[in-house]
Amino acid sequence: MTSPSPRWTRVERLDAAKTLDALHARTGVRLTLEGPCPGGQVGTAYVRGPDHRRSVLKWRPHSRVADLEAGPLTVSRVLRSAGCPAPATELVAQVGHAVVMVQELLPGTKVDHLDHPTLIQALALNRLQAGRLADHPEIPAAELFLRQDGPGYCLHEPLRRHNRRSAALERRVAEIGAGHPDRLSGDDAVHMDFHPGNLLAAGGSITGVVDWDGAARGDHRFDLVTLRFGIHGGGADPAATRHLDAVLDALPEDVLRPAWAHMSLRMADWAIRHFAPSDVEHWLDLAEQRLD
Predict the structure, then answer these.
(1) 44-48 and 89-95: which strand pairing?
(2) pLDDT category, 13, cuts 50, 70, 90?
(3) Predicted confidence (pLDDT) per residue in 50-74, tens digit
(4) pLDDT tens-digit profile of 30-46?
(5) pLDDT tens per residue across span 229-269
C-alpha cells in the first residue's frame, strides 16, 4: 500500500534578490548578489559587500533575531572561541517573518565524499563541543519531536500516510519518544546538522563547519548520528563508514536510540514531502537498521 501523495507543505526557499532588496531597506546595507551556494535545502547565496569582500547570505524563515541570538548564534560564537572553524556572523536583521544573516565566507569547499582522515578530524571537532555550554544555561536544549511535529520538519503525518513501511517507522519513533525525554540532556554544543555537506575542507584539512542555524544544547554525540545519516548510500569511504559505525555501536542506548529515531523521522518526512518515493525508501533502509 502506497497512498496517493497528498500536497504536503514544502519548505520555503530563499529568493536571494528579493531578500537583498528587503535587507537594504531594513539596514541601509547594499549587497551584490553573486549566485547561489551549492547544496542546501532552503538556500544560501554568495554576496559581495561595499568593501568587495565576499560573504554568505543566509535566510531563516519564521524566525526571530532574539531566538537566534539566544541559541544558535551564541553557540557558534562559543565554538569559535574554542577553536572550531565556525563562520563569524557579520550582519543579522529581522526582515518580515524571517531572519536574514550575512556570514563570513570560510576557505575550502564542501566535503562531497568523507574519507577516513577527514572523519578523524570531524570526530575531533565533535569532541571539542563537549561541555562548551556549561556557562550558558540560557541556551535551549535541542528538541527531538519524537511524539509531536517539529516547526516545519520532523512531521509525523506524512510517514503515517505514505505507506505501511513509513507508518511502521512512525509508530516506532513514537514508542521511543514515549520512553525518552523530549529534549536532549547535557551541556554540550550540538550542531544538529553535522553532515559532510556542512564541512569545508582544503588540502586534506577541515577548514570550516557551517550552518549552525539549528544549534542548541544537548549531547554532542547526537551529531555523530547525523553524520552517519549524511554518508548513507556511498557518501564515504568504506573504512570511514566502518569506523563511524563502531563509534555509534559504543554509544549508550539512551543516547543512540532517540537520536537515531529523530534522524529517521526527519529524513523520511523530508523525503516524502520534497523528493521521489525511491528517496523515501533510501532513508527507510537506514532507519530500520537500528530501530528494531
Answers:
(1) unpaired
(2) confident
(3) 999 999 999 999 999 999 999 999 9
(4) 999 999 988 655 679 99
(5) 999 999 999 999 999 999 999 999 999 999 999 999 999 99
Q: Which grid coordinates belong to 22?
A: 528587503
> What is the 3-class SS of the chain, one letter each residue?
CECCCCCCCCCCCCCHHHHHHHHHHHHCCCCEEEEECCCCCCCEEEEECCCCCEEEEEEECCCCHHHHHHCHHHHHHHHHHCCCCCCCEEEEEEECCEEEEEEECCCCEECCCECHHHHHHHHHHHHHCCCCCCCCCCCCECECCCCCCCCCCCCCHHHHHHEHHHHHHHHHHHHHHHCCCCECCCCEEECCCCCHHHEEEECCEEEEECCCCCCEEECCCHHHHHHHHHCCCCCECHHHHHHHHHHHHCCCHHHHHHHHHHHHHHHHHHHHHHCCHHHHHHHHHHHCCCCC
pLDDT at 105: 98
Which of 228, 216, 83, 205 is closest to 141 using CA atoms?
216
Q: Is the pTM of this model over 0.90?
A: yes
